[in-house]
Design brief:
By secondary structure, the chain is mostly helical. It is built from ten helices and three strands, in the order E-H-E-E-H-H-H-H-H-H-H-H-H.
């Protein structure tokens, strides 16, 4: 019989505790309920087997004392591996889309970097990579001058599904932009959208002081939304340039964006990064379409 263990006001710590419990062999899940006193939504960690409740309680008490311990982030990453493997296997036949990137060197380069970072993370270097690539607050970057962190989160992915989903879209749309408008256009789009999406997400996130003041978000999703917005608006404003995206795909990505804000998905979404990335891509497409005398 399932037993409620502990309730949180925010989803992130509840998700971290569930992930850690599962990696420790204690089957648990996340549920929601309304607090009758405050009328706010609570996230409840539920243990599947009542026989595990004592062990789970000990883990929960340790978690509450130090929720920023790196082992919980690592457990969430490992749990993402297990839960996404089945879904990602259905996407693997579509990996032929990566073939489009072979004729686009910058697209292929970003693909390779993301895969290498993910591979080394999976080989035990997750802590080292995140400590050196994840974003820090701008005031700290102004002191240590580690400006590569403005781009760093774009290369870090936390599960198979996460990286496959992002790289499929990047490999398809990025190659389309690069082959049609040139490597410089795609480089500029990547550079601007990665910085804009990471900085914006940082404004809505809290850094972990215990982990060198880094933010814990990552992924190429902000850039993916940027390239989608760019292709969408270029196809609308300059259809004669021969670059476009199908309306059902646009609809799917916008619905996915809306679902992130609804907070009903099984993963924590970097909504600010997605939205700002989309806006930056659309704005850049507008500027290019309006001020370019001819197709690059």
């Amino acid at each position: 019989m399932s037993t409620p263990l502990v309730a949180f006001n925010q989803q992130t710590p509840a998700h971290l505790l569930v992930s850690y419990l599962n990696t420790q062999g204690i089957s648990s899940s996340l549920a929601t309920r309304k607090n009758t006193t405050t009328n706010n939504l609570e996230y409840v960690v539920v243990v599947a087997d009542a026989a595990d409740i004592d062990a789970a309680m000990g883990i929960a008490e340790a978690f509450v004392q130090n929720p920023n311990d790196p082992k919980y982030q690592q457990a969430a990453w490992e749990q993402g591996e297990a839960t996404s493997s089945q879904a990602s296997s259905r996407l693997l036949p579509n990996l032929a889309l990566f073939e489009q990137a072979k004729q686009a060197p910058f697209t292929a380069f970003i693909l390779m970097v993301c895969v290498l970072v993910y591979g080394f993370s999976h080989l035990g270097f997750f802590g080292v990579i995140t400590a050196n690539l994840l974003m820090q607050p701008l005031d700290i970057l102004a002191e240590n001058h580690q400006w590569w962190r403005l781009l760093g989160p774009a290369f870090i992915h936390f599960s198979v599904l996460h990286i496959v989903f992002n790289l499929l879209w990047w490999g398809t749309l990025g190659a389309r932009i690069e082959n049609t408008m040139g490597v410089s256009m795609l480089f500029l789009l990547f550079f601007v959208s990665a910085i804009v999406s990471n900085v914006t997400q940082g404004l809505f996130s809290e850094p972990l002081v215990e982990l060198n003041n880094v933010y814990t978000f990552g992924g190429l999703s902000g850039v993916v939304y940027a390239v989608m917005g760019f292709v969408w608006w270029i196809g609308w404003l300059r259809p004669e340039w021969g670059i476009s995206i199908q309306k059902p795909i646009i609809g799917f990505m916008l619905v996915w964006l809306a679902l992130g804000y609804a907070d009903i998905l099984w993963v924590s979404m970097a909504n600010a990064a997605h939205t700002s990335g989309l806006i930056s891509g659309c704005v850049m497409a507008f500027i290019v379409a309006k001020f370019s005398a001819q197709r690059r």
